[in-house]
Amino acid sequence: MKTKFVKRSLALALSAAVLAPATFIQAAQFKDVPANHWAYSYIDAMSNRGVIAGYSDHTYKPAKEVQFLEVMRLLEGVINLSSSETANAKAQYGEVVRQMNVPTWAQQSICVALYRGVLDVETLNQAKKNGMVSYNPTAIPDRSSVAVYYARALKLKKKTDTSNLKQSDLASVNQDVKGYLSALVDAGVFDAYGASGKFEGNRGIRRDEMARITHDAYKYNEKASQEKTFEGKVTLVSSGIGNKQFVVEKGSEKLAVNYNESTSFTLNGKSAKAEDLKEGQEVKVTYKEVDNSLQQTGRLASKVDLKKTESSIYGWFVGMDRDRISLRYTEKQSSLDLIRGYLREEGSKEFTLPRDVKFTSYGLSYDPRDIKKDEDIVELKSVNGELKEVKVYKKANGYLEGTVEKIEDSKEYSVYKEITLKLNNGEKETYYVTDKYFSLPRIGDKVRYNVSYKVIKDTSLGRNDVVYGTVIGYTMGYPDNTITVKTYNDQELTYRLDKKVTINGNGWMDSLSQLDNLKGSNVEVVIKSGLVTNIQEKKNVSTYFTGIIEITDSKEIGGVTEYSARVIKGTYGIRTSFTFSLDTATSGIKKWHRYNVGTYVGLDGQPKAGEKFSYQEVDDKGDPVSTYWGHSIDNGTIRK
């Protein structure tokens, strides 16, 4: 290494961090650091800056392990307190340091370390007990401790996600140390792969390693001191030739900053483009002050983190031409009521429609020519400040298709149930049922409904189903003729009756006496398009079984297979085993497999002959392993 002569004042000699006590000659020719040494450039740079020094014999001793006080002396330079802060540190901790007999040349460094939070008094006391705080130390700090010291000196917070660490011996590294080490890797101070693929946290740290770490710590500080960050909402984007800039505001604060091809953009942590920067977006911008003659704002963004933001404007539809839509609008969702069809408008406004904007209604594509003026409510949905979708909520003749995700009681006045649907376009929305006689679907049902705004109106598009239970009541008075059934899981369900209902296979004309005769009876109620069309009384049955069984044995005789099964889970009070027979050709039931089943059980506690037997194979957790089935599907009939 070339000879370096560094002139230092007394102040520098006291405040600079060195790798040897001050009695050694500093910044000499290092005979043991040839130009091909891996750490040559780091030692050279730090020596030139007066941060590290060699020994009186003109050696650097790169493989020698660094002492505790030497680490603290180096960190004093990394921390780089102002003169007033250094005075405060000495005033606060000077007496403690003197009482611990810290060598004079290291006392200020220890005060600074305590002041910054690199150490606490207890840690310093433990280091002294371990023989590290003396003129002739008998122990050295390990690499794990040094990593923690440097992270704290640089004010780095330990991370919970340490996936950036690639060392092969991480299992032996303390979790807190890994958190700090991960932050140091992100800062460019430590290497993700360590030395030869390992971190080796229990060994000491060598002088050549310390030169590199200190060099990169200074580099990090220099970059951090130059760059600043600001978070807020973009209020203006200008991308003209030679004038690429944007304005970010937060409260009363405003920042105007330029960007160019060197500026990196991310959107929710993933790589993005400058074109993704839109007005209305929430951003975090990292920037630095630059020469005003080169940038109009005097600031240049090095990194812009965009956050995906969604916003909506609602309004009564007024009119539309090719690229504009007019609304009597509000930006406050609290001013909108899609149950009662009410919107408290803030004013009237024209909005520009991008060429690729989508028009939808309840998850389906919609022709904008069919929007009704002063009747339909429109939602303008923007993503990252750009209008992406125009959603139309119809006052009349709205239509939706979707899959039922959730059904809940509603806290809204005059609303019976809330149904959350996954619409055909994948969006999830909640719709409202105000009719207490509405035939409710089940979770997982695919449904089609007529709606007004967000209220499901027509039961004519209700589900098809078969319900099993006991008749507990009815009402007369068309169109609200109803029957109430208590199911075998204790639900009380009320359904509207069709104009003509078949009871026990006979056309229903005079229904009053027939319904009265059914009270207290076990019945099978067939529902089509939301209305009861057939009621079949079930005699000599004890209950309707629904649950999971496991086939324990089977034997075939003349095209009929007799199965033995144990009940895994099922209707309360049912016996723990079944024996039943099905046609072999149609059943497909296998021994030791489990099935979710539904069937009537006779007075003897066994599946009743002649009744339907619905089943679906499930796994050990009870999840389906075959296609969906419902009670209306007749998988088989119980044979005698």
Automatic annotation (TrEMBL):
Going by the entry's taxonomy, the superkingdom of the source organism is recorded as: Bacteria
Signal peptide start-end: 1-27
Do you know which Pfam families this protein is assigned to? SLH
Chain ranges of the SLH domain:
26-89, 164-228
What the entry lists under PROSITE patterns is as follows:
SLH
Sorted UniProt keywords: Signal
Q: What is this protein called?
A: Surface layer protein
Q: Which organism is it from?
A: Urinicoccus massiliensis
